[in-house]
Specification:
5-stranded antiparallel sheet; WxL_dom; WxL domain-containing protein
């Protein structure tokens, strides 16, 4: 996996004299999975942008910024890198500003985009990532059937990876429920007795989340999860069932996920959709 990231750092002069002889270089914790930039775009406040070439030596020893920063003014420095590594890996971009000021280190991170699910960062609490369950094309049967998830290269790697729910919480009290709506097509609906079976889900906590030293730790397992298509909220994790972390993940074993459809239901050629609603309840 390889993708591009654009980083920007802003230096503001809050001192009583112009900032001169400023330099910028990579910090000691710059992740190896990030390439060095080939140039920096330096934009002094109120002035035009200047492009400064960068090479490996300069990125290690320091790239000189072309202008002093006047009192009360700022300068923005932008550069582009490419990230390589396994999906979900966290890489740190750390730079040091030095020269006319005391050495100042700033950093930020990038997570290599997962193949299967979007990953976001909730402002406070919420869902970092939730799955989409796709059962592909199935037939109408004269008896109750359990259908497996579709197996294609672009959907959880032909079943070699698992769908998951990842949450972020800050309160000590927290619980998780889920509910399934009635599957419907343009002209038909499946009965509310339809079920989504997720099996037992291993639960993991995280330490150093969103850092290159991030670790995923086994925390336990849920009971077998079965969602009935009548929008009834089903308990997934009880209050304080898992403690000690603010980020948790539930993994649903790919081959255990089933859609259970009663006999003689569905119309050939119709596309049915339903919604799984995940509910994170937190409190002090």
């Amino acid at each position: 996996t390889l993708f591009r990231s654009i980083w920007t750092t802003t230096i503001t002069n809050t001192s009583k004299a112009p900032l001169q002889n400023l330099n910028l270089k990579k910090g000691p914790n710059w992740s190896a999975g990030l390439t060095i930039p080939t140039f920096m775009e330096v934009t002094p406040e109120g002035e035009t942008t200047k492009s400064i070439p960068v090479n490996s030596t300069l990125w290690t020893e320091g790239v000189s910024l072309p202008n002093a920063v006047p009192i009360g003014k700022k300068v923005s420095v932008a550069f582009t890198t490419r990230a390589t590594g396994k999906p979900n890996t966290v890489l740190k971009a750390e730079v040091v500003v030095f020269g006319g000021i005391k050495d100042s280190t700033v950093d930020n991170f990038v997570r290599i985009r997962p193949n299967d699910q979007e990953v976001i960062t909730p402002t406070t609490e919420g869902f970092i990532s939730v799955p989409t369950f796709d059962f592909g094309q199935v037939g109408v049967a004269g008896s109750k059937q359990q259908h497996s998830l579709k197996q294609t290269a672009d959907y959880y790697g032909n079943g070699t990876r698992n769908p998951y729910v990842r949450i972020k919480k800050t309160q000590p009290n927290w619980s998780l429920t889920a509910q399934l709506s009635q599957p419907k097509s343009a002209t038909d609906s499946l009965p509310t007795a339809t079920r989504l079976l997720l099996g037992t889900a291993p639960v993991s906590s995280f330490t150093n989340y969103n850092q290159p030293t991030e670790l995923k730790n086994a925390a336990g397992t849920t009971s077998a999860i079965s969602l009935t298509a009548n929008n009834t909220a089903t308990s997934i994790i009880a209050n304080k069932q898992f403690t000690g972390s603010n980020v948790y993940q539930l993994d649903f074993t790919f081959n255990n996920v089933k859609l259970e459809v009663p006999a003689n239901q569905g119309i050939k050629g119709q596309q049915y959709k339903a919604a799984v609603t995940w509910n994170l309840v937190t409190g002090p």
